Amino acid sequence: MRSKLLLSVTILLQIILISGFAMLGDMVSRGLQLPLPGNIIGLILLYLALKSRLLKVDYVERGGRLLLLVMPLFFVPALSGIMDYTVFMRQSGLQVLVILIISSLLTLTGSAFLVDRLARRKEGIDVHE
Amino acid sequence: MSMSEALFWLVLTTLLFGGAFWLYRTFPFVWTLPILTVTAAVIVILSISGTTHAAYMAGGQYLSRMLGPAITAFAIPLYQVRHHVRKFLPEITLGVGIGTLIALTSDLLLGLLLHLGRATNLALLPKSVTLPVALAISERSGGTLALTATFVLVTGLVGSIVGPRLMTGLRIRHFVGRGVGLASIAHVMGATKSMSLDQREGAVGLLTMVLTAVLASVLAPWIIQIVY
């Protein structure tokens, strides 16, 4: 029981630490007027802290894992906003879906095809097999 | 809006998520994904109780705010799998650059072609960018936020379902090609799918997701300015 409580507190503290990096990222993004959102700056800062061994991965790993596990929960409020757009979805939903699918196919084909060929060449695998 | 009502929606959504998580563990299908079932449940409950989405957000906003730390937390798995991607960093970066350019320009041009309204087109633009960053891009350019969230989710679903089969059809077999391909359209959902197939492919997917977010944030304003 005691160790369970200790684990919960540890995870909570780790989440607060990670949130601190996200907030720091927000401050940097706003302060320097960068085009990158604060959470990505926070990601880069946290990565650099781990890489430079300023921060041991043990200090954030459990909290980070929980945050990523429950991330779908954080999407729900923004996503449920679609309830105010039923008329729009009936009018333009299909149009948007067509664009979305064509654009995705082009993107995947372009990027994957190129990278696949480059990676195989680098490893000396015959492209034509 | 009273504090207790905000707290009620916050707690209810969290409890629903707990239930949905258990449901997905027991019946793991695409249509039992917690993000779908919880969103559907919330919409049904709000509609039945005659609550507006704006009123719901009094509690919901606290969940939305946690998206920032969640994205920052991706630094941890990225750090842990960095040895898988180091060798292919130039290839991945080039692939993400090409992918992001294709995604952004094809969205805007197809939107103009099919006479999509400006706010809708701008909401669609970051559809392959991980959600918190997509919302930031949409907000800065004047897109409709609720639409961006929906488009990002639909793109992630379509991509992670169709993507692996499509790449097999295109004979894309190298883990670097597959990781970049899937995550460059299906962002975090693609990277998660890759991770479940192969750890190295997942590592490439994670890096692709981060690089796409960075590049799209920088490129989107430029491309909007050129096209509009």
From TrEMBL, chain A:
<feature type="transmembrane region" description="Helical">
    <location>
        <begin position="94"/>
        <end position="115"/>
    </location>
</feature>
<keyword id="KW-0472">Membrane</keyword>
<keyword id="KW-0812">Transmembrane</keyword>
<dbReference type="GO" id="GO:0005886">
    <property type="term" value="C:plasma membrane"/>
</dbReference>
<feature type="transmembrane region" description="Helical">
    <location>
        <begin position="66"/>
        <end position="88"/>
    </location>
</feature>
<feature type="transmembrane region" description="Helical">
    <location>
        <begin position="32"/>
        <end position="50"/>
    </location>
</feature>
<dbReference type="InterPro" id="IPR005538">
    <property type="entry name" value="LrgA/CidA"/>
</dbReference>
<dbReference type="Pfam" id="PF03788">
    <property type="entry name" value="LrgA"/>
</dbReference>
<keyword id="KW-1003">Cell membrane</keyword>
<protein>
    <submittedName>
        <fullName>LrgA family protein</fullName>
    </submittedName>
</protein>
<keyword id="KW-1133">Transmembrane helix</keyword>
Automatic annotation (TrEMBL), chain B:
<keyword id="KW-1133">Transmembrane helix</keyword>
<feature type="transmembrane region" description="Helical">
    <location>
        <begin position="92"/>
        <end position="116"/>
    </location>
</feature>
<feature type="transmembrane region" description="Helical">
    <location>
        <begin position="145"/>
        <end position="163"/>
    </location>
</feature>
<feature type="transmembrane region" description="Helical">
    <location>
        <begin position="204"/>
        <end position="224"/>
    </location>
</feature>
<feature type="transmembrane region" description="Helical">
    <location>
        <begin position="31"/>
        <end position="56"/>
    </location>
</feature>
<keyword id="KW-0812">Transmembrane</keyword>
<protein>
    <submittedName>
        <fullName>LrgB family protein</fullName>
    </submittedName>
</protein>
<feature type="transmembrane region" description="Helical">
    <location>
        <begin position="6"/>
        <end position="24"/>
    </location>
</feature>
<keyword id="KW-1003">Cell membrane</keyword>
<dbReference type="InterPro" id="IPR007300">
    <property type="entry name" value="CidB/LrgB"/>
</dbReference>
<dbReference type="GO" id="GO:0005886">
    <property type="term" value="C:plasma membrane"/>
</dbReference>
<keyword id="KW-0472">Membrane</keyword>
<dbReference type="Pfam" id="PF04172">
    <property type="entry name" value="LrgB"/>
</dbReference>
